[in-house]
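We now fix the convention by which a protein and its fold are recorded. These numbers are not coordinates but entries in a learned vocabulary of local backbone shapes. A record is reproduced here so that you can trace the correspondence yourselves:
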Amino acid sequence: MKQIIRRLARVGDSSQCRSANTNGKNSGLRQSHVREVPEGHVPVYVGEEMERFVVRTELLSRPVFLELLRRSAHEYGYEQRGVLRIPCTVRVFSAVLDSLLSGDRAHSDADLIRYIDCDV
């Protein structure tokens, strides 16, 4: 995990930025052509289309994100250069992120992991 966090600190270049802005909460930016990453956030690239999301670092410790990071390491390895890629569809990642940011307690992390599994 420490290795992933160190790599996240070095990641930063891209051409698109996207995040989930739910219920007035600002988790990042949903703007095009923004390269800066706000303090306390990390960029991740999702799906085949490599869509960029800027995610709060506090979410990385949630079990569903740990599972996504584990899958990323399994799929791409720890030695991948450049960006942190998340191996799931943009649609599923957006739904998971929206659920986490909304504070929706109706969906546990286990539920969200099962949701990711259904998309595989």
